[in-house]
Amino acid sequence: MSRFARRIRLFVELSRVSFRRQLAYRTANLAGLATNTFFGLLRAAVMVALYGARQEVVGMSVRDAITYTGITQAVIAYLSVFGWTELMDTVYTGDISSDLLKPMDYFTFWMARDLGRALASMLMRGLTVMLIYALVFDITVPVGAWQWAALLASLLMGWLVSFSWRFLVNLAAFWTPNALGISRLIFATSWLMSGFMMPLRFFPDWFVGICYLTPFPAMINTVVEVYVGVLDAQGVITALAAQAMWAAGLIWVSQVVLRAGIRKLVIQGG
Amino acid sequence: MRRTIDIYLRLISVQIRSQMQYRASFLMSLSATALITFLGFGSLAMVFWRFDNIGGWTLWEVGFLYGMVEAAFGTMDLFFSGFNPHIFSRLIRMGTLDQILLRPLSVTLQVLGSSFIMKRLSRISQGALIFVISVAMLDVHWTPAKVAYLPLVFFGLMCFFGGFFVIGSTLTFWTVQPIEVVNIFTYGGREMIAYPMHIYERWMRDFFTYIVPAIFLNYYPALYFLEKPDPFGMPDFAPFLAPVVGVGMLVASFAFWSYGIRHYQSTAT
Fold this sequence. Notes:
The complex is a heterodimer of chains A (270) and B (269). Chain A has one domain (3-264). Chain A contains 11 helices and 2 strands, in the order ααββααααααααα. Chain A has helices at residues 3-24, 26-51, 62-78, 86-93, 96-101, 106-136, 144-170, 179-193, 205-211, 221-228, 233-264; strands at 56-57, 60-61. The radius of gyration of chain A is 19 Å and the shape is globular. Chain A starts with a helix and ends in a 6-residue tail after the last helix. In chain B, 72% of the residues lie in helices and 0% in strands. Chain B contains 12 helices and no strands. Chain B has helices at residues 2-20, 23-51, 59-79, 85-94, 96-102, 107-113, 120-138, 144-175, 182-192, 202-211, 219-225, 242-262. In chain B, α3 (59-79) packs across α8 (144-175), α8 runs antiparallel to α9 and α8 (144-175) packs parallel to α12 (242-262). The radius of gyration of chain B is 20 Å and the shape is globular. The mean pLDDT of chain B is 92. The interface between A and B is large, with 37 and 35 residues.
């Protein structure tokens, strides 16, 4: 087996283990699903009440807006929207020392594990939320192979942007004992700027402009816009390209920061 | 009584002093929580120019509901920190509760004094700020009765959500791990009554009227303060049930709590 094939094999195995571990938390997954559904219903009611008699607002129909509340609840677990501190925890417990000794690139190691976790979450708390939505509401569904393909690409890219960003934020633990506080602040910012609280197109243009200077819209808002179909073919391609650029950029930056961080790292605990 | 208060204050001051030791971390958490509270209402405010009302209510009328519930829930969250199911269940898992039971002091008092999360202050102040701004923009017609009733509504909300914390903690006597579904009533309930209740589907509203009577804690009092007509035709005393429902909830939950304590079997850790 070539070296490359072996690496791929290791990546897939790590993802699979992490996928199974996530599925094993059955009660936690169910409770999470119930909570996501309840909050989704609340937010859908708020949307309907905001729309009132309006049929459409900036290209989004009431139906799109209801679907939007479902999508945002569906990606909470998939993208760890409420926070992800697994990596910084290993820094503070000292477990990181054994992870760094593993014969595998440190970034790829976490990426494989996060992919498994994300896919299991998508299955248990993403698709299920959308299924419940489809039963309760008349929701928007992508049309045609092309839009489905674009959605799939956008979801995958959204995860890649989200993961590399979360990885980068967690690296703060290499420098400061306060990384948890920093990450809370950053995650809260991302809720507003990623389009998690409200679809970005509802906001004033100047604010949307600021949001698009950050990687946050590439995590959720792009997925929403591709899903509900408010973009034309040209717009979809531009949006996917922007996601790919953010992913590539963040992966590169996290490599640089990781290299600097490892030189700085003081292993704690024992 | 005097001794009880004295002990409680001493327990709390230990908590406060220890949290103040990590000042940078404390300030960071404070600003993060402030940002989170602001985001909910702030994002609504930022899209309001496209919509101009929500189920017939203006932004500031919603702000009245939103600020009130945020401030009251935050205050509850501060004083009932020890009864937060996530924090309390740790006492059970670590076996700390066994030590508490052995001390010649009220168990409830010790649990109340076991945690006092200072960063909740930012939630309280954010909620109060939203409330004050909304009231200033609304030009509420204040009467002596309304001024007297306002703190009672606040108190009712605190007791109501405190009751859910106590129930959630009592359940962990049997389950050890906190039951996540309780979050739907605490955090979900908070979110729900931050908006006017008539925007929800019938079955959801009925559930939060007859089974979990959350509708009387914020929505009905707001109808009274803002002098809005009641869309559901409840009796005239409906807006004044907030303290009764709140205190009733807390008393019932403490009854369940003492039942739980009597049936507590240690985790033997």
